[in-house]
Amino acid sequence: MTPEDRSSVADGPLDGTDTLVLGAVRELFSRTDPMPSGLTDRIKFELTLAALHAEVAELQELTHTGVRADSASFTPTESVTFTSSTLSLMVSISPAGEGARPGTVRIDGWVTGGPATVELRAGEKSIAAEADANGRFSVDEVPRGPVRFILRPVDARGRPVITPVVEI
Question: Organism's domain of life (predicted)?
Answer without folding.
Answer: Bacteria
